[in-house]
Amino acid sequence: MVDIDYYEILEVNRNATLEEIKKAYRKLALKYHPDRNPGDKEAEERFKLINEAYQILSDKEKRAMYDRYGKSGLEGSSGFEQRSYEDIMDFFESVFGESFGFSSRRRDEKYPLDLTIDLEISFNEALFGTQKEITYHYKAPCQACQGTGAKDGKLSTCPECHGRGQIYFRQAFMTFSQTCPKCNGRGEVALEKCPECKGKGFKLEEETITINIPEGIESQTRLRVQAKGNLSPSGLRGDLYINIHVKEDEHFVRYNDDIYMEVPIFFTKALLGESIKIPTPRGERELKLKVGTKDGEKFLFKGEGFRNLHTGRRGDLIVQVKLIFPTKLTAQQRELIEKLQESFGMETQKEEKKISSLFEKVKNWLKKEKKGG
Prior knowledge:
This protein is an alpha+beta fold and 373 residues long.
């Protein structure tokens, strides 16, 4: 993974104050804003990076985390999240307001540009990583109406907002505004609906892409594929976000980066402390039992778990023993087990004394309770 240098993106040094970072962000965000660079995908990507850099460096805790671990120390944690195009535009407005004449959605956009889909993968694919070919549908402007939703592309000024895209109302001494509900902020409405797209302004296109699923990925992780989202009439294309869902496995359970598995062992093998071969996610391994292994006892295989996406270190494989006992015995088997029990001599006598002592303790409790009653 190549780390992004947020300081370099904002053109400030690593000791820059918050005010210097704000000043640099304002200058660059205005310079690369999509409304000032229509159709320029390079400027759009630069704008996204500038906003991402400011979100991290303007936050004291996130900046400290970034200074120490780089971007990899932020991803997947509560301190960092890939944001959609709409989120970024909303963030820009939250910092500077609408005084610069920019809006969070361009007027020629009838739908969000970023697109989200779900992808289910197997436990094994999450463990080792894989490549996936995905076929999905994205929105593209209707050619018949140039994405306007109007027949022959003919639009008229919205009578509700008079082309402003916003309606205003007063309450006491305050003035409020909201997006015009009639034109949805576009300032224009269709005289007649386009017969091709039924006034939607878009059609669905199919696309197939191949993506890399990294080794160790977890459920609910979101992958971003740049410029593979919905397409706007201006030629600007959003990003595709893929929500990963990992299917549960019949034999293995993931907890953080560790893998847990239960291995059934016949009681005689545990009693003798034998070594057995067990199938693990990474291949066959030897499980060395000790004499008298207990039911539920755990054995650790270091580095046999999932690879952490941020640190690169692997978790462990924890094997839990489940002892299996026979439910029926032949006369010969019973005789052999009785002889085995007799051969332990003092060991069985110790157990009998413990049980006898326990009975005496319970009797004493009952006597005290009766006297108290």
